[in-house]
Amino acid sequence: MKQLLVLITALFSLSAHAQKDPKAKAVLDKVSKKFKTLKSVEANYSLNVTNRAGKSAGAKSGKIYLKGDKYLITEKDMKIISDGKKVWKYEPDANEVLVSKVDAASDGITPQKLFTNFYDQDFIYKLNGKVKEGGKMVTEIELTPTDKRKNFYKVYLYIDEVQQMITSSKIFENSGNVYSYSMNGLKLNQTMADNLFVFNKSQYPGVEEIIQ
Questions:
Q1: Residue 70 — φ and ψ, nearest 5°?
Q2: Is the dihedral of CA 19, 21, 22, 24 positive or negative?
Q3: Kind and range of the H or E element at 23?
Q4: Do the beta carbons of residue 41 and residue 192 sit within 8 Å?
Q5: How far is residue 120's CA from residue 17's CA, in Å, rounded to a whole number?
Q6: pLDDT tens digits, residue range 90-109?
Q7: pLDDT by residue (tens digit) across 45-73?
Q8: Hey, what's the torsion of the CAs at 33, 38, 43, 45, to 10 degrees?
């Protein structure tokens, strides 16, 4: 799941600002502006991983819930919960939960950053145009990280400009792995209780808590 919360790397002779595409920024700004108006987002997502040889290296699916700076990500073998201050990563097979603090200054990618204007500081971006995905046309935007120490070197976002939402993305790691995410079944502005975004130990008998 760290790949869902991760992104880019390389040196450029020109400044990052000089290489940003205003057309790409206009599309991304609309997505960011809309996301900031939403009270909550619920969606299904799927992940497919391919290795350097282009062969499948795994697949999984889950659900994501977003509310303000809070989020919940659920998969069959993992659950990640954040109330905006702490992050709990629960692994059912081990019945253990890793607890860490949210670092606002960190360059890690949270679900909220993915939908808002993280791109202005962390990436060089350009508009590649329209491509067909899932039977409909979407806009492809290519992101290249300004920090070359990242474990990935390229990200592609696919945006439904009618809904002004990111529908899928691809993350290219230096190792050769490609992580392809897609989202569907979007539900906007649903009522979500705040306790959905807090790990309740009483619901997990015998869970081992590990503080990081």
A1: -100, 150
A2: negative
A3: helix 22-37
A4: no
A5: 9
A6: 999 999 999 999 875 555 55
A7: 898 999 999 999 999 899 999 998 899 99
A8: 30
Strands of the sheet containing 96-101, edge to edge, are 123-133, 136-145, 152-160, 165-173, 178-188, 41-50, 56-67, 70-75, 78-82, 86-91, 96-101, 208-211
Ordered structural domains, the chain, with CATH: 17-211 (2.50.20.10)
Residue whose entry in the numeric block shows the structure tokens 């206009």: 26
Please give the single-letter amino acid code of residue 7: L
Side-chain half-sphere exposure of 48, counting CA atoms within 13 A:
9
- Cα distance between residue 37 and residue 123, in whole Å: 24
Lookup: tokens for 76: 């069959």
Give the closest residue to 153 by CA, choosing from 9, 2, 45, 56: 9
Residues making up the chain, counted from first to last: 212
Residue type present at position 175: S
